[in-house]
């Protein structure tokens, strides 16, 4: 019963975001709230401060660094936890958190105690994908309306 109610409330009430896709989540919130994070200098500055000034360049650099493999000489590579920490290193409001490997004893204990939360989380990930089309369509309509308003004033 509670899981069904929770799913309905989330679907009907919220624009959802995901921590693992924070920048896109914030962009979606901005679209829905009518915040221009690209054209408005102040808002763009806030996004750059929070996510890093050269986000895309940094992400490409980090992906290249993280994709290195250990060679026969035993040179070190980045572990998964190190990749996440490095990816978050230049972000304003980010903190490294220990990872719990799926299938580990710790994971199994958490999954057992929070099995309904895991089901709800899977639903939220699906909803996040579903909302993408709706929010992008809404953003496009807002831009078209803004252009029409500018044209009408001229």
Would you spell out the secondary-structure blueprint of this structure?
Layout: H1 2-13, H2 22-33, H3 41-51, H4 55-66, H5 80-88, H6 105-113, H7 115-153
Helix pairs in contact: 1-7, 4-5
Written description of the protein model:
The longest helix has 39 residues, at 115-153. The relative contact order is 0.11. The chain is elongated. Mean pLDDT is 78; it is low at 73-90. The chain has 7 helices and no strands. It is mostly helical and 154 residues long. It has helices at 2-13, 22-33, 41-51, 55-66, 80-88, 105-113, 115-153.
Which features does this protein show?
154 residues, single chain, mainly alpha
Q: Sheet bearing the most strands, described?
A: none
* Number of helical elements: 7
Helix and strand composition category? mainly alpha
Compute the CA-based radius of gyration.
20 Å
Q: What fraction strand? A: under 5%
Estimated helix fraction: 55-70%
Name the average pLDDT. 78
Low-confidence stretches: 73-90
Order of helix and strand elements from N to C terminus:
HHHHHHH
Shape: elongated
**Cα-to-Cα separation, first versus last residue:** 56 Å
List how many beta strands DSSP finds.
Answer: 0
